[in-house]
């Protein structure tokens, strides 16, 4: 029988002991001090159980705290790894004979996915693969930096010489204009859809002038330079005709480089249409007549009908899941708008 089932009367401890007759026990402030019940084994066991339960609760709290700290550190480590490794290679190691695919998507710029570093790395992997029979550049880009486009153009030319048995086909999907066509012209052959947009062989550079707005709101431009042309084409200063003429010469020179690259790549397949290098853009069907493309077809059609290896293996560089998530949030929208307003960027369009 447990102590809870004993024949003692219910209650906590024994009954208070009655003070002896004639005794006067005084409290701290002169009142009579009540008699305290004697301490029993059962009371101590209850206290011990309470203390032990508190200690167990503290141990559990510490264990959960350690668990969540480890989880947080693991999450931060994974996040750091994704940031430090923003790009991943495509399916580089494929089994069996195949057609290598390299994507050229979006604006061609140093800080974009379609940068020269990414495209050149993917092209080298595609050419070096023993089982790749040819390389297909699938293009969907409005163009971008002439420097980045030139790097890729030169690398395609070099790789074609190093691997003469592997042909390079450029296939335009929605749009292959300006710098994107610059890259495409380095290929052995170019194909497009009948509704694709092709061409735009020209150079553009733009900006804004704020001088009249500044006058209206009472803002003074204070610019200090060392070098008479250091404030060249400053958007907050009045436009100078000699600066405009000089900049036009730079654009004409870059345009001529673009024209020479296209002529070198396309050769006598180009028509004699005087509008060919005017910056106009044509449909894929019109581009065939002008000699800008060799025919109509998709990437899979090229692999199947021209290469003879229907299996396409993507060697393109891709963003990490973390970067994709950040891009979807549109974190860089404000920065992009500010850059557009403040900079005069030279682009092939």
Structure description:
The chain is of the alpha/beta class. It is built from ten helices and twelve strands. The protein has helices at 41-84, 116-128, 146-162, 179-184, 211-217, 241-266, 284-290, 299-307, 321-329, 333-342, and strands at residues 87-88, 98-105, 132-141, 167-177, 189-192, 197-199, 203-205, 281-283, 295-296, 312-314, 318-319, 346-348. The strands form three sheets. Strands 2, 3, 4, 5, 6, 8, 9 and 10 form an eight-stranded mixed sheet that branches. The protein has a two-stranded antiparallel ribbon with strand order 1-11. Strands 7-12 form a two-stranded antiparallel ribbon. Helix 2 runs parallel beside helix 3 (146-162). The longest helix is centred in the N-terminal third of the chain and has 44 residues, at 41-84. Residues 1-17 have low confidence and may be disordered.
